[in-house]
Amino acid sequence: MIERNRQVRNIWCMARIFLVYITTRDEAEAEKIGEALVLEHLAACANVIPKIKSIYNWNGSLQRDSESLLLLKVKESKLDELIKRAKELHSYELPCIVSYLSGPSNPDYVEWVLNS
């Protein structure tokens, strides 16, 4: 058990996983994109937050929209391909696709993401 924990922690120390934040026009689009990216093995997991409010400037005017949020977990080696594919699947002219490097995490979960 001690050796297993050491191996998992070594994987965690070397691994880089990312959270990818994508806003979508609605819940159906978030689910469609998330499902495709998981089925294509570009993301380990997709979470859909059905309703968020977004406020932003677009073409010189203030916009207020209801959107949905798609949050993905991905290993670093798949990140560029995931971003490219998400842009292909997205309905927006300029989709918000932003990645964040995760910090200290559950090593068992990190291992699962890396193996997904």
From TrEMBL:
<dbReference type="InterPro" id="IPR015867">
    <property type="entry name" value="N-reg_PII/ATP_PRibTrfase_C"/>
</dbReference>
<dbReference type="GO" id="GO:0010038">
    <property type="term" value="P:response to metal ion"/>
</dbReference>
<dbReference type="InterPro" id="IPR011322">
    <property type="entry name" value="N-reg_PII-like_a/b"/>
</dbReference>
<protein>
    <submittedName>
        <fullName>Divalent cation tolerance protein, CutA1 family</fullName>
    </submittedName>
</protein>
<dbReference type="InterPro" id="IPR004323">
    <property type="entry name" value="Ion_tolerance_CutA"/>
</dbReference>
<dbReference type="Pfam" id="PF03091">
    <property type="entry name" value="CutA1"/>
</dbReference>
<dbReference type="GO" id="GO:0005507">
    <property type="term" value="F:copper ion binding"/>
</dbReference>
<comment type="similarity">
    <text>Belongs to the CutA family.</text>
</comment>
